[in-house]
Amino acid sequence: AQSVSQHNHHVILSEAASLELGCNYSYGGTVNLFWYVQYPGQHLQLLLKYFSGDPLVKGIKGFEAEFIKSKFSFNLRKPSVQWSDTAEYFCAVPRSDKIIFGKGTRLHILP
Amino acid sequence: DVKVTQSSRYLVKRTGEKVFLECVQDMDHENMFWYRQDPGLGLRLIYFSYDVKMKEKGDIPEGYSVSREKKERFSLILESASTNQTSMYLCASSLSSGPYEQYFGPGTRLTVT
Question: How far apart, in whole angstroms, are the C-alpha atoms of residue A48 and residue A59?
């Protein structure tokens, strides 16, 4: 069965630092992957998704993720973070009509 | 834009009370979901509905039931609330025959005292 694991539970960075959040998935046939974000006090929303094609996926607010099949990874990246990127980030994998979420990474950006 | 609304943002109930959490979506989605979100545990699926009057247990259904009488509305019921059900509850909806992204409501923070 497909599952995802996120390595970092809590990350603290200063503004302008580069970001990479790890996500590994377990193999289960066709691979589709999501990153969701939850800003403080707001609802969970889709950041980006990979279904097929170009393994480098661009999302909203300057985020991107790279699907690396050989490493079973789908890490989230941003070259220069802003204070407004403070949020909780979830990697997720669809399973039939459902979605399996990772445990999340809390990101704090220091101004 | 898809809109998923939940009846309350904050709710305080006493142990043993029956609690109803309501969720409504306006995009004619077939699938609807209830999750609970706890720090360090991520999102855990409680129940899932793929059609009116149809439901399927998720990973943690114990202590909960659901109702889906209309396509746009999905209710989560705590038959007898307990303190370990204090949590953030999230509702979501999606099209069927995935993998489609899910759209989430703002959440209900339930405290059981």
Answer: 5
